[in-house]
Amino acid sequence: MPWQLPEDLAHFKRTTAGCPVIMGRKTWDSLPPRFRPLPGRSNLVVTRQVGWSADGARSATSLEQALADCAQMEPAPQELWVIGGGQLYAQASALAERAVVTEIDQDFEGDTFAPRLGADWAETARDPHMAASGLRFAFVTYQRR
C-alpha cells in the first residue's frame, strides 16, 4: 500500500481477529514475513500456482474453494474477511453482505484498486479520523441493500 497508516492496521487487526481471512497470493507475498501467517486468524490463500504452500496457510484454487473450506471449519466461523487483492475484492463484492472500507482523503498512484461499490450498497456507519501525520481517513461500513 502506498501509505503508512498505523491506525488502519490496528483497525484491521481488531476487525479480523479470530476470523478466517482470504487473500490472493500476491497479498500474502506483500505481508512482511514476520506477519505471515496473520496471527489469530485462519489464513487462506487463493492462487493458481499448482502445489503452492506456505507454513500457516491453506491454499485454494478459487474464491469459491476458499469459501467452501471456511464452511467446513469447526467451529463454523460467523464472519470471514476477504483482504485483497483487487481481483478477489471484485469477485467477493458480488457475494458479500457487508463491506468495511478505509477511505483515505488523498489520491495515490497505484496499479491495483478495490472495486467501487454500486447502487446496491448503502453506507451504514462512518467513523472519521485524523492520523498523527495529518492524513484524514474514515472507517466506513456498507451493507448490501
Please give a structural write-up.
The protein is 23% helix and 28% strand. It is of the alpha/beta class. The chain has one domain (6-144): Dihydrofolate Reductase, subunit A (3-Layer(aba) Sandwich), CATH 3.40.430. A four-stranded parallel beta sheet has the order 3-2-1-4. Strands 5-7-6 form a three-stranded antiparallel beta sheet, with no helix packed on it. Strand 6 (121-130) and strand 7 (136-144) form a beta hairpin. It is globular. The two termini are 30 Å apart. The model has no long low-confidence stretch (mean pLDDT 94).
Outline, from the CA principal axes?
Answer: globular
CATH architecture: 3-Layer(aba) Sandwich
Characterize the biggest β-sheet. 4 strands, parallel
What is the fold named in CATH at topology level? Dihydrofolate Reductase, subunit A
Number of domains: 1
CATH class assignment: Alpha Beta
Strand content: 25-35%
Radius of gyration: 15 Å
Q: Would you count the extended β strands for me?
A: 7
In which range does the helix fraction lie? 10-25%
How many helices? The count is: 4
Question: How are helices and strands ordered from N to C?
Answer: HEHEEHEHEEE
